[in-house]
Amino acid sequence: MNILHASSEVFPYSKTGGLADATAALAKSQAAAGHAVTLVTPLYRVIRENFDDLKPLGRAQMLANVWSLEPEPNLTVLFIDEPEWFDRNSLYSHIDDAERFIFFSKCVARLARHAEIVHAHDWQSGLVMPLLADETIGKVFTIHNAAYQGCFPADKFELTGLPKSFFDWRQLEFHGGVNFLKGGIVFADLVTTVSPRYARELLLEEYGCGLEGVFQSRVGKLTGVLNGVDYNEWNTTDNPYLAAAYSADSLDGKHLNKLALQREFGLPELADVPLFGNISRFTDQKGIDILLGALEQLLSSSLIFQFTGLGSGDSLLEQSMSSLAKRYPKQVAVKIGYDTGLAHRIEAGSDFYLMPSRFEPCGLNQLYSLRYGSVPIVRATGGLDDSVIDLGHGEDMATGIKFGDCSVTALGQALGQAQELFADRERLARVRDNGMRTDFSWTRTTAEYEKLYAKIKKPTA
User: Would 243 be classed as within a structural domain?
Assistant: First the structure.
């Protein structure tokens, strides 16, 4: 099958979050399965500065120069080169983002004419779907996070070149403006999101972010497909970032990674103290305020534990995290920013991994933590609920700990369960082993998408 993906970020070329990991890994897995896969993304400044083996594809019938790489057999990555729009220090949050991603979507639509399936991701490529409305191409639109919609003033619609009839409440118009995400949802043949539970949550006012009515109108074409893990990237046996190799069959190295992480963060090297980890955007969505409250509560008790955190985002949450680390330097250590190697080391060195998200379309770190033997503690929402089996099911099945209410109290109770589990080394070993042996590879996700593509693939002439 000839598949073309459109994504505003792709690992390892550009990244602000899980979108980059997911699109890159899905395309890579589909190529490995024998499909001819093209992945289209903007040529940002960071790519130009760090990848010097790009090959020119040319400009014929295009709006911009196009560069290419072939990182894997059957996989081609195309980079849209237009410095006016993409030669920036950051990927998003520019005053002209509407113009930038209208331009990107038009370029994708030009490149997509010979594909059998066009698969666009998130609001930045949402306009690809209406731009291809008259083409006999199977169109899939995936929502990685409905909270980000690409809403702009009505006068930006004219720049799309779409028929004026498309600007109405049934299609692209939204509260008087234009909504790129809504356009992708309405004009796609199939709408997917990144976990089955999140697909159900999008129908509700609490999670639909104002578009729940639109999702309800497309309920027959809306489905959830859980993201996977690239185990070549996220592995514990051949990983240059880790202090020692380990696996479910040989766990000794897990202990060495814990000691190395404590040493790296300047924490006391204590094997018999539970170490909690978190890697996150510091935002309300990720429940960082709840995490801070629960840590404060635990620190004021007689229980002994350690916490390591890595992330950035809201300045007040960054300050609160840093302040907590300064007040409790022997128990809490935080790095503001992002560091790929450190992310791997936190996953490997932690005993438990914390994800108290208010909502989480899929989540990837809980999947990484399962393989790394860091027992996930998650709120039962979205993909977190789909991928973690709660301790209440018994240690022969359980892979983690879930809590329901989005509150300091509920997370505190989950942390208490973790303390009890840590104290019972035999139970901890069984739960850890269950998690490390789960398989969330992209092979499963790829097979699900093959079935979905087959339903909408247009017959060839």
Answer: no
Query: Model pTM?
Result: 0.91
What whole-number distance in Å separates Cα of residue 262 and Cα of residue 425?
Answer: 20
Whether residue 12 is preceded by a cis peptide bond, meaning omega within 30 degrees of 0, is yes
- Predicted confidence at residue 61, as pLDDT, reads 55
Structure tokens at 151: 């809403």
CA gap 363, 367 in Å, rounded? 8
Tokens representing residue 209 in the block: 């972010």
Same domain for 267 and 141, yes or no, is no
> Which of 341, 371, 329, 331 has its CA nearest to residue 353?
371
Q: CA 274, CA 270: separation in Å to the nearest integer?
A: 9
Q: Are residues 335 and 451 in the same domain?
A: no
60: pLDDT strictly greater than 60: no
Closest CA to 252 of 434, 429, 422: 429
Same domain flag for 333 and 447: no
Q: Tell me, what amino acid is at 45?
A: R
Asked if residue 59 has pLDDT above 60, the reply is no
Tally of CB atoms within 10 A around 403: 21
Furthest C-alpha separation in the chain: 73
Distance CA 193, CA 218 (A): 13
Instruction: Report H helices in 125-251.
Output: 128-131, 180-187, 196-201, 205-208, 212-217
| Cβ neighbours around 104 below 10 Å, total | 25
Angle in degrees, 0-180, between the axes of helices 408-423 and 288-299, rounded to the nearest 10:
60
**9 in Cβ contact with 91 (< 8 Å):** yes
Q: Is residue 247 one of the residues assigned to a domain? A: no
Q: Reply yes or no on whether the pLDDT at 23 is more than 90.
A: yes
| Nearest Cα to Cα of residue 206 among 292, 122, 314, 285 | 285
